[in-house]
Amino acid sequence: MKHYIGAGNPMHAQFEAKAPYAAKHFAWHYEAGVGTITLNRPERKNPLTFDSYAELRDLFRALTYATDVKAIVVTGAGGNFCSGGDVHEIIGPLTGMRMPELLEFTRMTGDLVKAIRHCPQPIVGAIDGVCAGAGAMIALACDLRYGSPATRTAFLFTRVGLAGADMGACALLPRVIGQGRASELLFTGRAMTAQEGQAWGFFNALHESEALLEAATKVARELAEGPSFAHGMTKTMLSQEWSMTIDQAIEAEAQAQAICMQTEDFKRAYEAFAAKRKPVFGGD
């Protein structure tokens, strides 16, 4: 969960905003509590490289400590989300690597998904056009996903002679769209249409391409204005309860909710309700 570190806390300096983050391998924009990551190699449909994988992993890890960032949007430039690993800059070099090097790479790509899932902020995907391979896994790792009628999502690992089991796909995808549908996509590598994605629960909603980013950002702003500590708790419990029994989950949620009831945001919500006004949350 995301912890609030007040100004009087001796640890506060570790969580203060430092110099504005300057991304090297994608675009980063921050405004009003929302950070936006834009994959921006539009001439190649925004493929990933060894460097962009690593920088994305490190950014999502660092966002755990960014108390000013309340929600995150991930999108792509030029009408596409991400075409996966760059064929020339990643796939080619991988064919010449030995097992220890290959395992370092596959663990790094998995670490990106883990960093996204462990990042306490809600993450909203604005997913247009091509969304393939590792790009599909980044989209899958988001908490909320919005697409356009033009979006095509393909877990195409089998098309390049690999297993569909990549970056957590066999664990995450069945939980989102069901075992049978996930099995079909992972065995065949075919593209899931936007309409299928919405009907199967992969997309929360579809918007026309020109309105997609604005719609996703609107959701992120609403989340950023909410009780960020409680949002972090929700994300934590959604992940942890996968491995719990029902009884364990109910007990864990009882403890989680009791913790949230100690926050100032809980008091603010009550006071605002009593005064018939909208609460202004502070994340503490």
From TrEMBL:
InterPro entries: ClpP/crotonase-like_dom_sf, Enoyl-CoA_hyd/isom_CS, Enoyl-CoA_hydra/iso, Enoyl-CoA_hydra_C. It comes from the Bacteria. GO terms for molecular function: catalytic activity. Pfam families: ECH_1 (PF00378). NCBIfam families: PRK08258.1 (NF006107). Belongs to the enoyl-CoA hydratase/isomerase family. This is Enoyl-CoA hydratase family protein.
